[in-house]
Amino acid sequence: MDEIKNENKRIESHQNFLGRIGMTADDRIYLVLAYPYTIYIHNTEGELLQKIITPTPYAQPVYIMPSNAIITNFVISGLAMSNQGYIFCRNISFEIPDKLDSPDFIQEIAGSLFKKYSYVDIFDSEGRFLIHQHTQNFSWGSYFDNKGYYYGIEEAEDCFMAVKYLIKFK
Fold first, then answer.
1. pLDDT, tens digit, for every residue of 93-128?
2. Residue 129 β-bridge partners
3. Which residue, among 50, 45, 43, has the nearest Cα to 29 in the 3D structure?
4. How far is CA 115 from CA 9, 107, 110, in A?
5. Number of domains in the chain
6. Is the whole-model pTM more than 0.85?
7. CA angle 84–87–92, rounded 5-degree value
8. Assigned domain for 3 exists
9. Half-sphere exposure for 76 (CA within 13 Å, toward CB)
10. Does 5 reside within a domain?
11. Is residue 134 part of a domain?
């Protein structure tokens, strides 16, 4: 892995819980990390096959408030690879305001992460970033089965439920 350096008053998300790992049927291991937003593809011998760096305005370093509370605007919540080689990276992302001293803002964010700030980033089989698609209510996880169905967990009004989608690539 790459050496990651810290800036004053910030920590790198690579050192937190914000990444996801997945494996394909052809034994490729995918690791996605939040900041810098990077997808590493390895073989089972640990050899790096590809490194996809995605510079985006929404993946920013974690910020430590004076109270030592950690604020991050980008969390990886799922990773799945389709049979055609597309990479689906589930994430939560939102803009952090200049002033973070509002308890109301923090409470609003905490209470509506999945309802308002849920996205899927899709990469093609060559690793090219295609889209940052808003997917309201889509929560943690994502998975493709061998028939091409895409599964995820959605947040309903009073429960969480598994949802199955049929994804077609043109």
1. 877 666 656 667 667 766 666 677 888 999 998 999
2. 123
3. 43
4. 30, 14, 10
5. 1
6. no
7. 150
8. no
9. 24
10. no
11. yes
